[in-house]
Every structure is written in C-alpha cells, then in structure tokens.
Give the backbone structure.
Amino acid sequence: MIEELLPSGAVAEDTFTDATDDPASVLFPEEAARIARAVPRRQREYATVRVCARKALGRLGYAPVPLLSSKRGAPRWPDGVVGSMTHCQGYRAAVVARADDLASIGIDAEPNGPLPDGVLDTVALDAEKEWIAALSAAHPAVHWDRLLFSAKESVFKTWYPLTGLELDFDEAELSVDPVAGTFTARLLVPGPVVGGRRLGGFAGRWTVGNGLVVTAIALPLGPAPDEERDEAAYAHSPSGA
C-alpha cells in the first residue's frame, strides 16, 4: 500500500499481519531487550515492522542488523541509509533508500476514523480546521482530521533526522489536495538545510484504503523548483520575521 506513494529510489515493505506470535524469534537480542516489558501487542508490532525494515534493507544489499531507536523513537539506520517505519492496528510498514538518492523519508499510517475528542484542537491550526470542515462535508469517506494528524507525523519523521530537534504540531501548516492525493507542509520555523539551501517546507502524498489513512514524504536531495518562492514568503511573513 505504501509503495504507491513513493519514488523509484525508495524501497518499501509492508504487511497487514504480524510476522510471528513469538517476537523474540525475529529480533536481535538488543532489540528484544528494549521491549521485554512491553505488552504482547506492542512486542508483535515492534518485531513485525523490523522484519519489514530488514527485508527492505536486504533489497538495497544490506545484511540484517539490529534496528534500535533514538530517544525520540527515530530508527537508527545503517550508514548510508535513510528510512522510516510506521505501525498501527492491522498494518506495519518500513521504507528505506540510499542517502545518495534521498535526503530523508517520513511515513505514517493511521486508522481511517475520527481523532479522539480534543485531539484536533491540539494538532490543528485554525486554517487547517477550516479545510478539514470543508473537505469533511464534500468527501465524508475520508476522515480528514486523521489525515492531517498522519501527515504531520510524516512531517516530523522527515524533519527529525535532519535536525535532531522537536517540531510542534503548530510549527507546520498543512494543505491537502483531495483530488491529486498530495499535501504540502509549510514550516513556520526555520527549516533544515538540504543541498546547501534552507527548506521552507515539505511535499508529500497520501492514500486511503483498507480502513487506513497512509501518508508519505520522500525528500529529494535537491530543493523543489518552487522552494525559493516558499522561502521568500516565509521571510516576509509575520511568523518569519
């Protein structure tokens, strides 16, 4: 499912079922130690998404290695690799690419259902709430509040490996194209420097199916053609002063 959102340089593996009922059988000892006290559901999803990741790495020519996480939960990939993992009820996925092909990757999957009460006010800006309301009326089969949440998770997963910094939900403003299946994130704080230029935002893609909302960003090494205009707009906006 995730592969339809990605360019040719990215390698994806996903599954709708867990790899095993015995997570320890597919984990390296140091991985198993990290989740030894977790509930069985958490152990299974942790193990299965790493099975996906090692399969994807194998397709790039990398031998299986432990895939531990930073303090913020970001996977630590082998040298020369960028990637992202996601898991939710009924779905696990991992995407990797060579660092010579992509600068960063962020993916996220969520159930295609409404956000819990009160969460939208935490994650959405006023402008985002407006398009969520409009799209919910026009296209009710998609839970646009959940899509916003997923897209912001993909933004963070793309941002964090480049900066090592937190990014709050209100520090990126998203817009969505409901026909093209794309989204853009305008950063409201100075963006990371990639290819010698500071980025003003990220562009991603989304899809809905199998009861899921899935989002992905595959950040190229060079800036998109319109990023100079984005940067100029940021520099002249009140938030960019």
